[in-house]
Structure formats: structure tokens, C-alpha cells
Amino acid sequence: MTMVFLNKEIRDGDNPDLTEERKTATFDTNKMAEVIYGSEKLARRRREISQAVSLIPELADSKPLPFLSRNEKILESTRKVTALNEHLPRLINMNDEDEAWHIHSEVIGFEGNPLALHHSLFIPPLVIQGSDEQHEKWLGRAKRREIIGCYAQTELGHGSNIRKLETTATYSLSTQEFILHTPTINALKWWPGALGKSSNHAVVVASLIIKEQNYGPHLFMVQIRDEQSHEPLPGIAVGDIGPKMAFNGADNGFLGFNNFRIPRGNLLNRHCNVEVDGTYVRPPHDKMNYAGMIRVRSRMAAEQGTFMAQALTIAVRYSAVRRQGFLENKSQEVKVLDYQTQQHRLFPAIARSYAFIFCGFETIQKYETLQNEMNSGNVSLMADLHALTSGIKSVVTYQTGEGIEQARMACGGHGYSMASYISEIYGCAIGGCTYEGENMVMLLQLARYLVKSVELAMRGKPGDLGPMVAYLAYPDIKVDLVTGPEAYVKMFQHISKRQSIKATEKFHRKMESGVSRDEAWNQCAVELTRASRLHTRLYIIETFIRRVDSIEDLSIKMVLTDLMNLHLNYELLDVASYALEDGFMSSTQMGFIKNQLYSSLEKIRPNAVSLVDSFQFSDLQLRSNLLNFLFQVLGRRDGHVYQNLFEWAKSSPLNQTEVLPSVTQYLKPMMEKAKL
Ligand SMILES: CCCCCCCCC/C=C/C(=O)SCCNC(=O)CCNC(=O)[C@H](O)C(C)(C)COP(=O)(O)OP(=O)(O)OC[C@H]1O[C@@H](n2cnc3c(N)ncnc32)[C@H](O)[C@@H]1OP(=O)(O)O
Ligand SMILES: Cc1cc2nc3c(=O)[nH]c(=O)nc-3n(C[C@H](O)[C@H](O)[C@H](O)COP(=O)(O)OP(=O)(O)OC[C@H]3O[C@@H](n4cnc5c(N)ncnc54)[C@H](O)[C@@H]3O)c2cc1C
């Protein structure tokens, strides 16, 4: 029997400690899910999809993944994703990217799979950069998965500095073909997901050469394997790059070309072209070929927010059933969630998860606007969005890594077991600090934009500043934090503005002292990245406040206001030294922030479990469902952790035999020898 309470999912048979938590909720988790996922329909669809998936046995893991070899992992992830594809048209709206993302993370989890990049990095550049004719030729086939593709940009020797990619695509006037070539070992493509063994096509980024002139990186559609035999085509060397920190269900690969010819029509040419006679037609923006990267980065805030939310769901539920030590009542040990230190570890990270997801909605919408504008030839929004998403991808990936690691530690010893699933989530999420632009490199991209903006403000042209950086020209007026969120924003604006100005002035001083521009930039780089982080954290705070302001349901608004206040105080405390330094913040204000922070922890405590329940991750998604497979068990919705941990241990292949060969071959002879 299911008891209906504000939190709609209280079930008989659940661990009573968790049931108790769910009863103290002051809001309805279904309603909160609507806020998290953007609408009643989206939240409901997620639940419906999870429910439907749970009824299809072949979509469950057939074996516990941590116990599998690399080959078995790839086989299993491929089995699941192909089985999923069979069911997909019945389960989701095939045109809805959110539904597709949800069902894949539900079924595949964090191991990766050979089609993940096909949908997220092969089809999108084809859509963005391909002409109508090229869509006609490849898009349908790709969408129907007649062909499998990946995105091959990074090389062994270069990832960040795309202008120095060494793979060349030389236009041959006589045959009207491009000749792809890998001139050195360093020029081998290296890292692309699903390139090694699964893909038979790739969008390849190579330097376009026409009549010995280098026109920089361009995108080409390249078939790399035979469609029948799946053997590499002559002139192609391709393979897997070996095991990684995570994503071991996917075959990240290498790729080399030996004067491999492709037709002229394989240059993705919606925005640029090479005509038959070798005339180059420029795109409307120099960095048009980088647009796909803006797209992926714009999706990373929401993506990473949900990664962290999954780790926190596991850690918070576990913290409510784990009892250890005493507070006042010496007859019963307390839930570890009652310790202030535990709350301080987990609750600010919950707030960040919400903040990143809300911020993610805004960036995805901004990207969609950019895409529409680009389609009609307007590229004026590109620079702003490039700067914004560069900062956001860097800050959210780093803070998500911190949050997931705290979630792991908050689970004590069991957090270190793969039964927690947290290490797998961490391995996947932390890759985000590197892929789609190494974080420092991307922070420095945003810094270029901030420096230019400060220079505009200094030249007395504040009117030329975009809305995102208008605050750089605001006067400094002291604020009283008691007055609420707006005062926090103003305090943060002051801190961010001051750091941007300080870094810019330092940069100018260096140049004035005779140091070259590039060298001066490098000597200020740490200060510049600090400016970028502050600017981005300010932006995230503002999106959180905007989202909470827009909510009508009072019970939801109240708990999200608590969460937002926690976020504001936690973030400001973290950067307070910047404002204490110039006296903009007083030590009294600092004390106020700390007290507010501790009081937010207390306010959130009764809602903690329901705040993570609201993400509505299924046990399958958290790999906590022991019914389908003996797999990770710590974040189970029903809270029955201990008996399932024991089952998990029993399922270890090591326990399938009492005496291991390691004992018979080595330990026993050693002990026997010692007895002689
Ligand atoms: C379940 C789990 C699932 C999870 C599934 C996980 C899957 C993971 C898949 C991963 C895929 C990948 O990693 S794919 C590979 C991704 N690779 C990257 O992201 C590479 C990062 N590097 C870059 O983007 C570039 O090289 C960059 C750093 C920007 C430098 O480029 P350049 O040298 O050409 O440019 P610069 O000289 O520095 O700058 C020149 C100007 O161009 C502007 N500029 C630069 N990029 C711009 C852009 N995109 N849009 C607009 N403008 C741009 C700058 O602001 C400058 O403007 P001014 O200031 O006005 O001059
Ligand atoms: C899980 C995963 C999946 C990936 N998938 C793909 C894929 O599908 N397709 C693809 O093409 N690529 C992929 N990549 C590659 C990825 O995009 C690159 O690794 C990434 O862009 C970083 O580039 P790099 O390896 O050259 O790092 P480097 O640039 O070599 O970074 C090394 C260090 O140098 C520093 N550094 C470099 N340049 C500067 C600078 N200008 N200023 C200051 N510091 C600097 C960095 O901050 C870093 O600390 C993937 C990578 C991973 C980890």
C-alpha cells in the first residue's frame, strides 16, 4: 500500500528512517520536479519513461558492470543501446532531446556507449554546418542509424589550440577532391568517443589547404570503415586508445589518414565553401566552425547539475539511514544527516545542483536563439555566448567535481566502494573539466571578453557594454545584506567588477613596462581566471534568483528560497576575502553571512531528502536496483542498504569460489615453505 502525503512517494516497507524524512517535507516532490525539469509535462514524461523502462527486462543491466572486463563492458553497453533503440519509438518522442537524454542516462548510466556521441556530437555539427543537400545525403541515414558517427577534432599533439591541428585537407583542383593526410604521429586524431571500434563515419576537423594557403580548421564528413565488412577503408588507420578513468563502455579512438581522398562535397558547407576552381567562400563569422562547441558547452550546466544531483541523492538518502554516534539522546544513535558538518558538506551542493540546472535552462535557450539567428545569417550573438558558456562550463564542471567528491566522503567507507556508484559518476563528470575545452583555457577565453569590456568602461563607453557585463560600469554603493538577495547580487557585482578591473590594470601595467602582449597576458593569467570565475558565479546566482522569483506555488517558493539563501551565503562567504580586502564588506557583515548560512542548514534539514527525491531518479538510474542486477545499492529509494550491500559483496566473482588460484599458486606454497 502506498501512503499519499505531500511527498507522494511514501511506500510501505521502506526503511522507516527514510519514511520519517519524507513525512517532514513541506512541499510536493512532483511539483518540485516540474520546476526542476521546466514543466509538468516534462516531469511527468520522465516518470512515465522510467516506469516503462522498468518493465522491459532487456533494458536492465545483465551483469554488475564493475565486475566486467573492458570488452565485456563495451559489449554490454552496445547490447543495451541497440535494445533501447528498438524500443525507443514507443517510449519517447523521437524529436525531443530531453526525453532522449533522460532515457539514455536511465538505461546506459555513466559507462558511455558507442552511440552517445553519434547523437550529441556527430548529428549536431552535421545539422549546424551541413547544407540542405548534405542533410539530404547524410542526415536521414544518420538519424535512422544506418551509419554511426563521431566527432574527430582533437589530436595526439593538440586539443586546446585548434588552429594548430596538423591533419590537413588539401584541395586537389585536378580531381576536385580533398586529400586528408596525417603528416606526423602527433597529428593522429586522439580521444574522439566511439571512434575506435564502433563508428563507420566521422565529422573530421582538418586544416583546409587550397593552393598552399592554410584556411584553418574546417569540418569534413568522412567515411572511415566499409559499411558491409566494417573494416577500415584503405588509407585509414583507426583503433581504441585504451582504458580511461571512466567511460569504459565506450571506445574513444585514434585515427590517421594516408592521403585519403574524399569528394569536394564532403566539406560541410552551409556557411563556407570551396568552389570547383578552388575559390574559398568565407563564413559570416571567423569562428563559425566552432559553433558546435558552443552548443555542447551550453548544455553542460544542466547536464553537470544532474550528475551532481545523482551523487547527492545517493549521499543524502544514505545519510538518513546511516546512524552513528550520539547527540543529546544517548539511547539512540543519530542519523549522520543530523550533524552540522554533514549538512554543510551536502546541502550547499544540493543548492548548486538546482542552480546549475536553472542556469542550464537559460543557456540552452540562449543557444537556441543563437542557432536561429545564425540560420538567418546573424552571428552577432556568438561572441557573447562563447564567453558566457566558456565560463559556465568551467565553473560548473569544477564545482560539480567538488560536490560529487564531498558526496562520496559523506558516505564514509561505503562511499569508497563501487557499490555507492559515486566513483563512476565522478569519473564521468570530472571529464567535463577537460572535454569541450580545458577549463583554464576556457576561463581565459571569457577573460578576453571581460578585459575588453573593462576597457570599454574605462574609455567612458559604458553604453556599449552588453547586459551581461553592464555592472562593470556601476558605481560602488555599499549595501546592507539584511535587505535580501538584491544586496547579495550587488556585493557580488562589486567583487567581480573589482577583480576584472584589477586584472585588466595589471595586464596594462605589464604591457606599459615593455612586456609583450602575450607574455603580459600569461603573467596575469591567474588573476584573469579569478575574474572569470567570479563573473560566472555572479551569473549563476542571478539565474537562481530569477528562477525563484518566477515561481508561483508558495510551498515550492518557500523551500527554494531557503535553498537560494543558502547558495547566496555559501557563495559569498567563499569569496568574502575579495570584499574584505577593500573594506566593501565589514567583519560584522561577514558574521551575518555565516549565521545566515548555519540557519539555512537548519531550515533545509527537514526537506533534505525530499529535495533530492524531487530529481526523481529511478533506482535503475542510480544503479541501486538489486532486483534487476546485483549492482550498486547505496542510493536505493527504499533505504534498505545493509542487506543489499551484503548481497552485492556475495555477488563478487571472487566469492564464487572458496579457494582462489592466488592462494593455491602462491600463498599456500609460501606458508608451506615457511613451515619447513
Ligand atoms: C552520460 C555522460 C555523457 C557525457 C558525454 C561526454 C562526451 C564528451 C565529448 C567531448 C567532446 C570534445 O571534447 S570535442 C573537442 C572539444 N575541443 C575544444 O573544446 C577545444 C577548445 N579550444 C577552442 O575552442 C579554441 O581553440 C580556443 C581556445 C577558443 C582558441 O581558438 P583560436 O586560437 O582560434 O582563437 P583565439 O585566437 O584564442 O581567439 C580569437 C577570437 O575568437 C573568439 N572565439 C573563439 N572561439 C569562439 C567561438 N566558439 N565562438 C565565437 N568566438 C570565438 C575569441 O573570443 C577571440 O575573440 P577576440 O577576443 O574578440 O579576438
Ligand atoms: C572523456 C573525454 C572525451 C573526449 N571526447 C572527444 C571527442 O569526442 N572528440 C574530440 O575531438 N575530442 C575529445 N576529447 C578531447 C578533449 O576535447 C581535449 O582533451 C580537450 O579539449 C583538452 O585539450 P588537450 O588534451 O590538448 O589539453 P592541453 O591543452 O594539452 O592541456 C594541458 C594543460 O595545458 C594547459 N593549457 C593549454 N593551453 C593553454 C593556454 N593557452 N593557456 C593556459 N593553459 C593552457 C591546460 O590548462 C592544461 O592544464 C575528449 C576528452 C576526454 C577526456
From TrEMBL:
The keyword Flavoprotein applies. FAD binds at residues 154, 193. GO terms for biological process: ascaroside biosynthetic process; fatty acid beta-oxidation using acyl-CoA oxidase; lipid homeostasis. Pathway: Lipid metabolism; peroxisomal fatty acid beta-oxidation. Pfam families: ACOX, ACOX_C_alpha1, Acyl-CoA_ox_N. This is Acyl-coenzyme A oxidase. PANTHER family: ELECTRON TRANSPORT OXIDOREDUCTASE, PEROXISOMAL ACYL-COENZYME A OXIDASE 1. SUPFAM superfamilies: Acyl-CoA dehydrogenase C-terminal domain-like, Acyl-CoA dehydrogenase NM domain-like. It comes from the Eukaryota. The active site is at residue 436. GO terms for molecular function: acyl-CoA oxidase activity; ATP binding; FAD binding; fatty acid binding. InterPro entries: ACOX_C_alpha1, Acyl-CoA_ox_N, Acyl-CoA_Oxase/DH_mid-dom_sf, Acyl-CoA_oxidase, Acyl-CoA_oxidase_C, AcylCo_DH-like_C, AcylCoA_DH/ox_N_sf, AcylCoA_DH/oxidase_NM_dom_sf. Residues 290-451 form the Acyl-CoA oxidase C-alpha1 domain. GO terms for cellular component: peroxisome. The keyword ATP-binding applies. Residues 485-672 form the Acyl-CoA oxidase C-terminal domain. Keywords: ATP-binding, FAD, Fatty acid metabolism, Flavoprotein, Lipid metabolism, Nucleotide-binding, Oxidoreductase, Peroxisome.
